[in-house]
Amino acid sequence: MAHLKLENNSISPITQEIFDKTQKAFGFVPNMYKTMGANPALLDAYIYSYTSFRANAGFNATEQEVVFLTAAYENNCEYCVAAHSTLADMAKVPTEITDAIRNGAEIADPKLKQLSQLTRSLSLNRGIVPQEEVDAFLAVGYTEQHVLGILAGIAVKLISNYSNHITNPELEAPFTSRAWKK
User: What residues does the Carboxymuconolactone decarboxylase-like domain cover (predicted)?
Assistant: First the structure.
């Protein structure tokens, strides 16, 4: 697999602002942000879409992590599976849910199972899914707006997962306890 060897000798004002806000909020700047920051359009698009998904997609914290983890699993992104497993732990998502996703297994909870299954299907099939899958998702209490919210989450993970594949950022200490390989 190809990997870029980025040299961030010059950081744009947009990237620096994101780094400063991230450092203040979390106490560190993730290596993923550092590699994405070599192109301010990429990092800015990621941060904007990530923030919007968290605030506007209509999912609670557990559901957000199910979408992110499922998409990262299907995209085979070791970095994001580890990071979102850690974030899920911090959000008190039951470990059996995150471990099921990390192992490619079904989630026991019927609603979260449908969320993960539709996320997986939309990811693998590039948005082309049978009506029966959407109907099964809607039948457990989600709405059509939630289907579109899944697409927003998949788009966020597409940016970060593909960027991580080509830049191979090192996993930081806060995420190593949940390191993952498919």
Answer: 54-114
